[in-house]
Amino acid sequence: MHKxxxxxxxxxxxNLRTDxxxxxxxxxxxxxxxxxVSNVKFRDVQRNxxxxxxxxxxxxxPYKGTNYALPTNEAFILPLTDALKSCESGSNxxxxxxxxxxxxxxxxxxxxxxxxxxxQQSFTFTTGKVNY
Length: 132
Description:
Blueprint: E1 8-9, E2 14-15, E3 25-28, E4 35-44, E5 49-50, E6 53-57, E7 74-79, E8 104-113, E9 117-126
Antiparallel strand pairs: 1-2, 3-7, 4-5, 4-8, 6-7, 8-9
């Protein structure tokens, strides 16, 4: 996660304290020299909605050309939760607190490995109770 920064996602203009995102999905394929992720779908199963994403890979890495550059066999899927009213309590109730707590999400994507083999991947995960 150090490549994304603790507070700011470099190059996005996003301050995570005031403009959070959902938990990123980290893709790492050690056996490959290069991967290219496409056709990403990030679905909130419970609410039957698609969550917009931003893909971060070696092609659009703001740290490209530095010691912190994302390797060509890694990528991040960042769920952009701006439209979600996911804060369930506290002073920000009804605002954006990232992904909803206690909710199931399905992520699917295609991954082109070494410019040769296209694989389809999908998985589901469930968020836990959110503490604000």
